[in-house]
Design a protein that fits this description.
With 377 residues, this protein is an alpha/beta fold. The protein has helices at residues 2-7, 18-30, 41-50, 67-75, 94-102, 115-176, 185-215, 228-238, 240-245, 264-280, 312-318, 338-349, and strands spanning 10-14, 34-38, 55-59, 85-89, 107-110, 223-227, 249-253, 259-263, 287-295, 298-305, 354-359, 363-371. The two termini are 31 Å apart.
Length: 377
């Protein structure tokens, strides 16, 4: 029954005559509105705080405060100024009507009430405000979609074009004989550079698509039992080209038998991006450790490196979803900052929070928590 009541339009009335309040109750409840009435203007504001009405019926002539004055008081509050107010009055003259519209009223109903007229006017203004709210919501959604599109075009136009242009240039050099495929350094340098560039472009494209889906709520989260030790090993294998080239030692310190309850694809994306960043900002022959700890009902995953470290002011930028922040790695590897925005989004969707500890010159630790898998999940 409670759910049915909350779905009804809620009308709040102020009138100094108890008989009028009871008559309004009879009419409105019979027409399937949820109704509350009071003759106390102080109590009226308490009712406003409890629940915002869809429409207010306001008596013009009251002993303590005039209806027009009360209307002005209501409209002075930002959260209440859009509520339509219909004045109830026994006298109708042009001067009063003008005054009522000036202070923010939308209509008049004369006493004694005609039920059909009262309901028709209430229905009209409730539907108008509902339509206005829908239009504002659609405008906001359109604005978000346009912002999303603009950011995507910016990333595609700049960050995705860079690796593809670099790869094309290298292949042009090969075709023209500027780079000799028979050279001893061809496999070690040229082919590696091409593979690395293609990996960067593919990773960016995957992040871009994942981020776009997430921002537009088109991505579905399916939590399941995840073996974190195995997910880390899979990520190590995926990023082996980059870690081997920089001779970085990759340590999996996540205990076997540590299971999270989270979305498989999202957590894979998070691990891939954070570890890829760790490789990028860790010097040659550095060390990256992935640790797993049990903490109450959560698992904490840490990706720790002994790289450049991050200044405090940059940590805030990295974790700001509205900031497009990127830096070059230790070997001038490019980045977009998009991966960490996606990581933060995915970790949040799985009930966790992404955080960073870092000291410049000593390294960084990116860590996040996930729910522990239990037989009850």
């Amino acid at each position: 029954m409670e759910n049915q009541v909350t779905e009804k339009h809620y009308i709040l009335a102020v009138d100094d005559e108890q008989l009028n309040l009871e008559l309004l109750r009879f009419i409105l409840e019979r027409n399937d509105y949820h109704y509350v009435g009071t003759s106390d203007d102080d109590y009226f504001f308490e009712l406003l705080k409890e629940r915002k009405p869809d429409l207010i019926l306001l008596d013009v002539i009251m002993p303590r405060i005039e209806g027009f004055e009360l209307c002005e008081k209501i409209k002075s509050f930002k959260e209440y100024k859009d509520i339509p107010i219909i004045f109830l009055t026994g006298k109708v003259n042009v001067k009063d009507k003008v005054r009522g519209f000036e202070v923010g009223g939308v209509d008049y109903v004369t006493k004694p009430f005609n039920e059909q007229e009262l309901i028709a006017r209430i229905h009209t203004h409730v539907e108008l405000i509902r339509a206005k709210n829908q239009i504002e919501e659609q405008a906001q959604n359109l604005k978000q979609s346009n912002n999303l599109k603009d950011r995507m075009f910016s990333i595609i136009g700049h960050d995705l074009r860079s690796p593809l242009s670099a790869a094309k240039l290298k292949m042009d050099f090969i075709m023209r004989g500027i780079i000799d495929p028979k050279d001893d350094k061809f496999l070690d340098e040229t082919v590696y550079d091409l593979l690395k560039t293609m990996d960067e472009a593919l990773n960016l494209l995957q992040n871009l698509l994942g981020w776009a889906k997430s921002e537009s709520d088109q991505i579905q989260m399916i939590p399941e039992q995840l073996n974190l030790n195995e997910l880390v090993e899979q990520t190590f294998r995926l990023l082996k080209l980059g870690s081997d080239h920089k001779k970085i030692e990759m340590q999996n310190n996540v205990p076997e038998g540590l299971f999270a309850f989270a979305d498989n694809n999202m957590i894979k994306t998070v691990l891939r991006n954070i570890m890829s960043n760790a490789i990028k900002f860790t010097p040659v022959e550095g060390v990256i450790k992935v640790n797993g700890k049990l903490k109450k009902d959560n698992l904490v995953i840490e990706i720790e490196d002994n790289g450049n470290g991050i200044p405090k002011e940059d940590i805030k930028k990295i974790l700001n979803p509205n900031e497009h922040f990127s830096k070059l790695g230790t070997e001038k590897e490019p980045g977009t900052g998009l991966g960490l925005i996606l990581c933060q989004n995915f970790v949040t969707k799985n009930g966790g929070e992404l955080k960073i500890r870092s000291k410049v010159g000593e390294g960084s630790t990116f860590y996040f928590d996930l729910p522990v898998y239990s037989d009850q999940d």
